[in-house]
Amino acid sequence: MSYKVLYRKYRPDSFDNIVGQDYTVKMLKNAIITGKNAHAYIFTGPRGTGKTSSAKVFAKALNCEHPIDGNPCNECDSCKSFNDNADIIEIDAASNNGVDEIRELINNVKLVPSNSKFKIYIIDEVHMLSISSFNALLLTLEEPPSHVVFILATTDIQKVPITILSRCQRFDFRPISKEAIINRLKYVCSEENIKITDDALNEIAIISAGGMRDALGMLDQLSSDDNEITLDDVSRYFGSVSVKKIDELLTAIEENNANVLLEILKEVKDSGTNYAVFIEKLISELRKLAIELKSKNNKHCVDFTDVYNMIFDLNECLCNININVDPYILIEIVLLKYINGNNDNKEIKKEDLLGNKSDDVDNSDVNYFPGNKNSEINDVSEKESEVIKDDVVEDSLSTDSKHNDDITKDVIDINIRVNNCFVDVSKDMKNKISKVWVDFMNYVMKKDRNLISLLADTIVLAASKSYVLIQSKIESTNNLINENINLLEKYFKDFSDEFYNFAAINENLWKKETEKYRFNLKNKIKYNYIEEKGSIEKVNSENNEQPVDELESLAKDVFGTFDIE
What we know:
The protein is an alpha/beta fold. The protein has 25 helices and eight strands.
């Protein structure tokens, strides 16, 4: 006898064996018991949740000669011959979606059943029918002969016309709970003598995402080996990442251990785990952590705000990942942002301001994670912190000038740099810098992990031949970037062999400066360079030699479309 895969071998033959769809099962059984069955049903829900199985059980129960409490008896001639019954017609709408197939169906509907109570049509993936096919089916679906029952099944209910839906009784199949899948898998394992650990069962239930067919398929594949199935087997064969590994990653972030974090990410990437699956699972575990942080018995040394921000940063990463960039590079940068804590509550250490690589500095004894009850930095008062910050910056700048004169500058003036950037700002220069920005951050990540934590969520706002304006979502992070602008400019020079003057500006200043740019455009005011080391001068006003329409075109290239009043 040929081998039958598990999901076919253990396909439910009665309503009592259908897992995780209690409400639907109850309603269908009541229809059999009371005899009040409709002429058309539509089952909708994710794949592998029991739609087709329920349709077959319902069809068997409708034709059963002696149904028991709404279930087919599986003993009568009708039940025993169900698989070969000519009155049960299964149609795959994906491959039979034309008008001709539907017309043939309509013609056959008129024929009475050969040896059953009802002639039952089970149309799977009904949303694949063409509009013409749906229209051809409408009248028959509304008033079929009394001996005909339609059962439609779909995974995409939005594509089914409302005219079809209004003629059917609708049943929504929900994703099967993890506990229900685990219990069913345990039953199958006991029947098939399959050895498997509880962790492996739990992981299969998570990966299957509420689909029993997927869960049984994975168990079937893993059971080909006689050895006990473990969590590592599941992760290795299906490119998954275990909850245990996620917990290790979160622990590395909580303990500010960048090396362990990067090693775990490398393992996850090398295992072939899809980045979307990894991010979704990480967000799921962060959600649990966020709930724990709000509970009374919180024992974690993590700040809720960090967890909240991390969830939204990862979600944005998931939505905006460029297919031309390795997704795991962006994930590394996002997570490294939370090593040593949120930038709102920390300062870069003196050694990093001097330009030393983070690989040469031992950060193991410093814990900047906000909310960490064991962190020494939390014992320092705000006043003392400000004094330390000022001393570090002043000392680092003076010391740095002795060692590296080419990156030493006075504290930058943001307004001057914005003005000078606008002198010859262009869309081409912005695109040029934006194109290499992710690669540059990857370069900085290898050089200085403290600096990359500041740059993790930055974007390029505008650029000219000599100036680049960038922005972080967090205002205090922009300030920290400007305090370390010399280091940023040095790394970019090493990376691209081109020197640019950088400035990080917050959202409010950027909005103000763009409005100013529009005003200058309207009044034909030209931007002129201002010496950075001199005092701030008022921008000179003179008639711009460029036509207004050319200036409008330039402004739209830089800032997008806007109306000039």
